[in-house]
Amino acid sequence: MKKEKNLISLERRLFFEKGTKLAAGSFLFSGLFTSLNAKESVALKVPAWSKSLGTVTAANLYGLPSPFEKDVLKEIRLSGAPKGYVSNSIALTSANSPISKIRGSITPNGLFFERNHSGVPVIDPKEHRLLIHGLVKDNIVLSMEKIKRFPSIEKSYFVECSGNTGISKNSPPDKTLDDMYGLMSSASWIGVKLSVLLEEAGIDLDKAKYIIAEGADGATMARTLPISRAMDDCMVAYMQNGEAIRPEQGYPLKLIVPGCEGNIHIKWLRRLEVTDTPLFARDEVSKYTDLFADGKARQSTLVMDVKSVITFPTTGDRLPEAGFYEIRGLAWSGRGKVKKVDVSVDGGRNWETAKFSTDPLSKAFVEFIYPWIWDGKPAVILSRAVDESKKVQPYFKQISDARGFNSESHNNAIQSWSVNAKGEVHNVRI
Amino acid sequence: MKKEKNLISLERRLFFEKGTKLAAGSFLFSGLFTSLNAKESVALKVPAWSKSLGTVTAANLYGLPSPFEKDVLKEIRLSGAPKGYVSNSIALTSANSPISKIRGSITPNGLFFERNHSGVPVIDPKEHRLLIHGLVKDNIVLSMEKIKRFPSIEKSYFVECSGNTGISKNSPPDKTLDDMYGLMSSASWIGVKLSVLLEEAGIDLDKAKYIIAEGADGATMARTLPISRAMDDCMVAYMQNGEAIRPEQGYPLKLIVPGCEGNIHIKWLRRLEVTDTPLFARDEVSKYTDLFADGKARQSTLVMDVKSVITFPTTGDRLPEAGFYEIRGLAWSGRGKVKKVDVSVDGGRNWETAKFSTDPLSKAFVEFIYPWIWDGKPAVILSRAVDESKKVQPYFKQISDARGFNSESHNNAIQSWSVNAKGEVHNVRI
User: Fold this and answer.
1) In whole numbers, what is the pLDDT of chain B averaged over residues?
2) Of A256, A288, A320, which residue sits at a domain end?
3) How far is A304 from chain B, CA to nearest CA, in Å?
4) Domain match, B233 and B314 both
5) What's the gap in Å between the CA of A292 and the closest CA on chain B?
């Protein structure tokens, strides 16, 4: 009975520290409930669903969300695309995760973002093979059944498209959270360490400098990763949040390159070639690069730097009244654990450290919460993450001063939202 | 590059310690892959799905598993029920989770077990209310919208039906893992601490001894919980693994009573009454009790004791050849964290400590793994968990000696599986 007293006292302390006066006898959360007298309580309306039988259980069943959650969906988000638009273009097969409608450090599988370059192949796992060849003692082929017999590990990692939050000088002014931040998700992956498979094939570590990973989709999407990273924490995953990896995430096999841009997490993984030279594939020289102001482009950025974003309240939300709110958000870093997240409710003049909902894990999302008493006056709220490598999330101006405005990739800028006196929330750049 | 060496060396050490001789130059996992010459590697068959476009992305989408995973479903398991049976009886609306086909410490929402007493009500969250009344200063009513404004917490907890693993003297001899252990699941829940809501209503802690919790289903399922537990770690949850709680788990609101039997996790929660006397509801006096040999019944067992089970290999599995396998399983305790799990592969004569896939959390599932070189000879494999309260999982004989054979509830016995020389796995009681 000690802990929840502390929880209450934390909120109350915050309340008093902010200098707001409590009316005599009123509680911090009063306004959040309706008081009834005893007679009213007894007479509380009994709804129809308490007076009838519900739906019966089917014999063979994969459960789905409530029909009342029918608007919580992945969505294609293209400027100018009409409502209900269905892409029939290869280049446009991506869908954003509804970040604003979900919670916590793990993305539900049904709502994991997707980005495909030749659509989603329907792969029979019995027919699927992984080839490991090149600078190895044995060129080896593995079936899914055999891959699952190797020692397995379970790790939570985020996947973020390098184009996530692609803001530029002329970005539309009131893009929503889901528009801007929907190309990222996080899951708990189960699979085999890549290094275990490479060692088993007898990798020649004296000569090997790169691994070329290739997918079995129509694009045969291929990328190069440095051998040091391949032998570190990469994994070949076949489970996502406890069940088989989803088709659009690479069923039956996905390469996980923790902390790196989404595109290098090769989906439908079919081939790993150990080489001494990069592949220079289209998607690593013409795309997924950062074009600077001087016309030179940086290739192989790979690592997604420390980043955070407030997910409530954001554009489109409206705070109904002054009072208590949780400011909530996500933080992550491709360089390890998020060490802390600071939140400002006055446009960046003053900062206070938020609390985490769960213990931060390396290269995974963590949810942060900042208890806030909104006084009903205009406010600008923003978050800033710091990771264990001591990298600090920058303002957009710091990024554009360094890189110019040519590239929208690998943007980890601080995001601000304004709250006006009516409680309406808008996107604002400071 | 150090860690994966350690992983390999762990398996290799185990291999040598067991006294098995390696053929010159062979690897621990040889037999798990096919070696090819360079020409064969280049000529590896390119499957049809690498030469065509996949399916395009729909505009509004809730993702589902691959069609090749169509057998991974919740299932009604009743002795004598025909294949494809659909229950139309209120009493029989339960479905088991396919434990044998999933992995890790979190159950995917689509495969979470269910047990309903009047089917699954379809509740409009806008209409749903939670009433808190009785020995409180204010009788209060909360809408879902307001409940979500209170300080929130996120915690992983298992839910296990007290009738899970209901073995008796005459249990059928070769029940499967999913038959026996399917009435349990684990999730990460987000909601409000129950104590926060009770304090806000002004609970009279001098007089209050019990909380009666009631659901909004047709059964108005109600249970009594002691005030000490209610004020400890209970929560009123509205999110399950990042998205809204599933209909069959209590959408929009579920009471979580960490570590206690499933039935007291009141689903579709609509009423909390603070009292000084228990409810003595049907489901706490005639059901969910333990009838002993002397005809007396124990009520309010509530806590699910420390337990573990090997989930691979189990009945129905067949090990194709001698060699390396991971023995994998789940462990949990209603009294806190699982401290360790020991595994025996010789019927309980010798035990070795398994490793955990992730850090154990209090009152949640943890997956354990024991790397095993099967020598091709008959073996009996079993697991035994110990929790932080120092409780040790007992053999079934210890339970039946103490309680007799009248009750199949609250059975946390050690489970054994036998492996014969053909690699076939069967259920065996030792």
Assistant:
1) 88
2) A288
3) 21
4) no
5) 32
